[in-house]
Design goal:
Elements lengths: L4 H8 L3 H8 L2 H10 L5 E5 L2 E4 L4 E4 L2 H4 L8 H11 L13 H12 L7 E5 L2 H16 L3 E5 L8 H5 L4 H4 L9 E4 L4 H10 L2 E6 L2 E2 L4 E2 L2 H14 L2 E5 L24 E4 L11 E5 L1 H7 L17 H16 L2 H20 L5 E7 L2 E6 L5 H13 L6 H9 L3 E2 L1 E2 L6 E4 L7 H18 L5 H25 L1
Parallel strand pairs: 3-15, 5-6, 5-7, 7-10, 10-11
Antiparallel strand pairs: 1-2, 2-3, 4-12, 8-9, 11-12, 13-14, 14-17, 16-17
Helix pairs in contact: 2-3, 5-13, 6-13, 7-12, 10-11, 14-17, 16-17
């Protein structure tokens, strides 16, 4: 007798949170409960989520950038369903899957230069791992340069290229050939090229942590350094690609940049079936696979699955058919205008970082004495706390799901689906304005919540220190 998923969910609804806490991740469960995000989600469609109380939320987190096309886009669901109910065999291993060939061709056609070979895997971090190996094999060199505060995944190789210490602590030693440079500092980058045998420079065109847009001149300079020293320019477009920035690739904003390797994942899945892709030049691919003997020198068991390939093809079709790249620019301009108007009114807002529908709202120390005191107090308690003063009430009162843009970064990040409406933009702007009005009243209810969270954080650090001393 087949299992009944509906029955399983219904039976486990009462204690699902405790069961998750016990069997999967107690710390993550505690985080969600502490900040009030421990909802029982019962439905997701398009840009919206519904909880078991019937409340509707606007999802501007998009699963960290997975849902560029919203949840359960009917065209993508239909494509996956066609494969699922077909007789098409999958993972034969000794095979050249037809859907993989077609998706690879479609991806190559969208590259801004002569990238013409694709390697498929399951995720962004696997694509980064492949890029490390491809770069070393193709150049015969060893060092990979990444940027401070960059994020390239959490497996051991990609973690070595992760510029956020909060993810790295306790997992040392990393690849000894990883090198870190500050973003938008061409002189520091050149110094690393001059003193090491560099195989590749890898960067997100827009750093996800903090939503830092790399300057055109910096990326041009990085490209020239790669050419001069025989290294590869690797653009990690796992979060910034698939139309997110208002172009198919965020790196395409720098005309003629000509990367050697492009990495995609997240939204390529259509929000249904995980997939990752590395797109590169023929000569680089040939260096990794130089002979029939080496045809499987780098491979992935679940790569090129028919469901994933169908989801990728359907996602590209939706991107074109609904003109979502142009839509991302139009909607992004609406966000920019609305947020800039609020920046003029509210002291905490320092900068709006926006390209397409990848948006960062940066905060800084205010001018008013009372608010400066509050800012200092919260940052003294915990350097990660202030953005929660925006994210938590946006969620509780505005019914908008957003995220803090990184560890010890006073930036809130927006990654709305590209399919949102003009009304959704206004929903967010009004909710954000309400939060700002409340936040600029000190003392006030938002600050009371932050004080409680801050005390919890301080207590947690005390327990951690006591454990270390023991």
């Amino acid at each position: 007798m087949p299992i009944d998923i509906g029955k399983i969910l219904a039976e486990g609804e009462r204690d699902r949170f405790e069961l998750f806490k016990q069997r999967v991740s107690p710390q993550w469960a505690r985080v969600l409960r502490t900040i009030g995000f421990d909802k029982n989600w019962v439905r997701g469609e398009g840009a919206y989520l519904w909880d078991d109380k019937g409340d509707k939320y606007l999802d501007f987190m998009s699963g960290w950038g997975v849902f560029n096309f919203g949840r359960k886009h009917p065209d993508i669901v239909r494509a996956v369903d066609q494969v699922l109910h077909s007789e098409l065999p999958g993972w034969i291993a000794f095979d050249t899957p037809a859907l993989a060939a077609v998706l690879a061709d479609e991806l190559c056609r969208r590259m801004p230069n002569d990238l013409e070979r694709v390697y498929f895997c399951n995720s962004g971090t696997e694509a980064v791992e492949a890029a490390i190996k491809f770069s070393r094999k193709a150049t015969g060199k060893h060092h990979i340069i990444h940027l401070r505060k960059s994020f390239h995944g959490l497996t051991t190789g990609s973690l070595s290229l992760n510029g956020d210490e909060s993810f790295r602590q306790g997992f040392e030693p990393f690849l000894p050939t990883s090198l870190e440079a500050p973003a938008n500092d061409l002189e520091a980058l050149e110094a690393l090229f001059e003193t090491h045998d560099v195989a590749a420079f890898i960067a997100e065109p827009i750093l996800g942590k903090g939503v830092v847009i790399l300057e055109d001149d910096y990326l041009w300079g990085a490209r020239e350094l790669c050419r001069k020293h025989g290294a590869l320019l690797v653009m990690d477009e796992v979060q910034t690609g698939m139309g997110r920035s208002g172009k198919f690739l965020a790196s395409a904003w720098v005309e003629g940049l000509d990367p050697d390797v492009v990495l995609l994942s997240k939204a390529l899945s259509g929000g249904l079936v995980p997939v990752g892709a590395l797109i590169t030049r023929k000569e680089i691919h040939d260096a990794v696979y130089p002979s029939m003997e080496k045809a499987l020198t780098h491979a992935c068991t679940f790569g090129m699955g028919n469901l994933a390939m169908a989801a990728g093809l359907a996602s590209l079709q939706v991107l074109d058919a609904e003109n979502l790249i142009a839509r991302a620019n139009d909607l992004g301009a609406q966000f920019k205008a609305g947020l800039e108007a609020q920046r003029e009114r509210f002291e905490f807002i320092s900068e709006i970082r926006q390209r397409g529908l990848m948006i960062g709202i940066a905060f800084d120390k205010p001018r008013s004495m009372g608010l400066r005191t509050a800012w200092a107090m919260i940052h003294k308690m915990d350097e990660n706390l202030f953005p929660q003063a925006v994210v938590i009430p946006l969620f509780d009162d505005g019914k908008v799901l957003t995220q803090v843009a990184g560890h010890a970064i006073d930036v809130v990040k927006l990654l709305p689906p590209l399919t949102i409406s003009d009304e959704d933009v206004q929903w967010f702007l009004k909710s954000f304005e309400d939060v700002m009005v409340s936040l600029h009243k000190f003392p006030g209810p938002v600050w009371e919540v932050l004080k409680k969270l801050g005390k919890h954080a301080v207590k947690g650090r005390g327990r951690k220190s006591a454990g270390q001393e023991a």
